[in-house]
Design a protein that fits this description.
mainly beta, 110 residues, six-stranded antiparallel beta barrel, 9 strands
Length: 110
C-alpha cells in the first residue's frame, strides 16, 4: 500500500525566498530570490505568501542567473525573477528586523 503525499511534499510544489524587491509596479515585480524547493520552472504559479493571509496569484515569467536567462531554477540558486499578477504589493525585502518571506506554489504542467 502506498502513502499519499502530503501537500508540501508534492513533486511539483515549489518555494522561493524573497531576498530583495528590486522594482515593483501594480502587477509586476523584479525580485532577487533564493530557490528553497525546486526546480522552479518558468510559468510557475505562486498562491501562498508566508506570514500573510493575503491572497496572491503570481506567475514567474522570467529568471536570470549570473546575467543569463534560464528556463528553471534549481534548489539553492539565487536569481533575479520577474513575477506578474495579483499580490505584488505584498512582497517585501528581507531585513534584519523581519523574517524573510517565502512564496509557495506549483510548476506548470509539462
Amino acid at each position: 500500500m502506498s502513502k499519499s503525499p502530503s501537500p508540501g511534499s508534492c513533486p511539483s510544489s515549489v518555494e522561493l525566498q524573497i531576498v530583495r524587491v528590486i522594482a515593483a509596479s501594480l502587477e509586476q515585480a523584479t525580485v532577487n530570490v533564493r530557490c528553497l524547493r525546486g526546480p522552479v520552472r518558468r510559468g510557475a504559479r505562486f498562491n501562498r505568501l508566508s506570514g500573510s493571509a493575503q491572497a496572491i496569484g503570481l506567475t514567474m515569467t522570467q529568471a536570470v542567473v549570473y546575467g543569463h536567462r534560464v528556463a528553471e531554477l534549481d534548489t539553492g540558486l539565487t536569481a533575479f525573477v520577474t513575477l506578474r499578477g495579483k499580490g505584488v504589493e505584498h512582497l517585501k525585502s528581507d531585513t534584519l528586523a523581519s523574517r524573510s518571506q517565502v512564496i509557495e506554489g506549483a510548476n506548470p504542467l509539462p
